[in-house]
Amino acid sequence: MSAKPFLAQTYPFKVLPAAELDRLAARARVKTYGKGETIYSEGDPADSVWVLSKGRIQIFKYTTQGRPLAIESIAPGELFGTLCRLGGDGRQYPCTAIASIDSEIVQISDQEFLASYNRFPALVLGVCSLCSQRLQAVQGLSCSNQEPVEKRLAMLLLKLQGKHGMILPFTKRELAEQVGTTVETTIRVMSRFQKKGWITSSRGKLQLKALEPIQKLVDTVC
After folding, report:
1. What pTM does this model have?
2. Under a CB-based contact definition with an 8 Å cutoff, are residues 136 and 145 in contact?
């Protein structure tokens, strides 16, 4: 695969002039990872901008007890391992990135990316916008951790629907990791959702059937 067609339709790279996009794409690397493979680990030297073109990436932090906590699911077209480091001196990845399914990723070195970033204000504005969105998501995650599991799962389903549509390619274990609960609890809550007709589930995926009651649950003040 050539990186150019993908970058040309991916924000914020698509704001670049054609000649600069050509330069960046020519120096980018397209890499593939199988399900379960690690792209980078927390503490690894950080020297690249990563953009998912196909598949799905899960971002983890590890607790002091060594338990993985899923903090984000990356969908095609999204940057990762990048925004948290721009504007600072962070030379290590603060999280671990693992391919949830077979995935294809465009890797751009920091040096090449910053050459564009420092020359084109439109790219700076695009990155700032993404940083703002990511910060809002992190703040929302922090607040949601105080909510009951049922509400946290409802919030997660709506968030994932915005990225993946009505069919969510996630196992119940992956959902449990993202809301910080056990698989058993997740199964019980999702079974209640299914009995109400809000979702249907099959191996490795969920289909959302009724968004309005899920949204009402999220809006409920406990």
Report:
1. 0.75
2. no
